[in-house]
Fold this sequence. Notes:
The protein is an alpha/beta fold. The protein has nine helices and seven strands. It has one domain (9-188, 229-255): 3-Layer(aba) Sandwich (Rossmann fold), CATH 3.40.50.720. α1 packs across α9 (234-240) and α4 (103-131) runs parallel beside α5 (155-172). The model has no long low-confidence stretch (mean pLDDT 95).
Amino acid sequence: xxxxxxxxxxxxxxxxxxxxxxxxxxxxxxxxxxxxxxxxxxxxxxxxxxxxxxxxxxxxxxxxxxxxxxxxxxxxxxxxxxxxxxxxxxxxxxxxxxxxxxxxxxxxxxxxxxxxxxxxxxxxxxxxxxxxxxxxxxxxxxxxxxxxxxxxxxxxxxxxxxxxxxxxxxxxxxxxxxxxxxxxxxxxxxxxxxxxxxxxxxxxxxxxxxxxxxxxxxxxxxxxxxxxxxxxxxxxxxxxxxxxxxxxxxxxxxxxxxxxxxxx
Length: 264
Ligand SMILES: NC(=O)c1ccc[n+]([C@@H]2O[C@H](COP(=O)([O-])OP(=O)(O)OC[C@H]3O[C@@H](n4cnc5c(N)ncnc54)[C@H](OP(=O)(O)O)[C@@H]3O)[C@@H](O)[C@H]2O)c1
């Protein structure tokens, strides 16, 4: 399928690994001029080189933390006028006992997972409106609509994010600028591997891969029967970043192997 985005400028904020990288690859494959950002330089530079070589396109790496004012200033300076902006930001680690979640932890979660994406969108929307076209996509989490007691540092702030995008997307759709969100369930990514220790701690498990995997399967009950990999969501992400999604406005697409049991 031709996504009709060849030659457009696309920023994947959080594009060196996991779902961000898989999305960046689908965009590169479709012929965009690509910018990818991340905090860790070495992995970012490697990803940029690999994507550029594989898809014969320009990929500009930007070392920047999307969750801070300073990091976003670097991002905006290095990529001032993208047509497409996809965003993913790692939330704080899974929490343990909910009674131990402090105001400081809430502030950190809001700063990273709510204000980070909002500030990036708020910066880029005016130039997209002026051009008469733009696509904004958040890769957030299905715990935004499927509450999980161990994901308080991720889900609630993202529920606020999808509330924000529901309003703003309906305000800016008249200018050809769409915002949509992908809400992933359980994906085996670099990020989920890094979370293993925090997951074990949250549930009081010993740090043993078999024990954790067993608990994970029982706890999460995924109808599809497996944790996905990033390529299972990237085609949808690329579609939402294209003109083909012009009538999809302010939607939250759950990609979770059927785990969230709901009609909508
Ligand atoms: N994997 C899952 O099972 C799962 C489930 C539900 C929701 N999600 C959500 O889906 C999103 C992607 O998850 P993933 O598993 O694909 O993560 P991942 O493998 O860790 O990849 C995340 C990418 O974003 C970058 N990144 C993270 N925080 C950043 C920040 N503050 N500023 C700039 N770049 C940042 C990472 O690079 P650096 O670390 O170098 O910055 C990396 O390139 C996350 O928001 C996560 O909460 C994941």
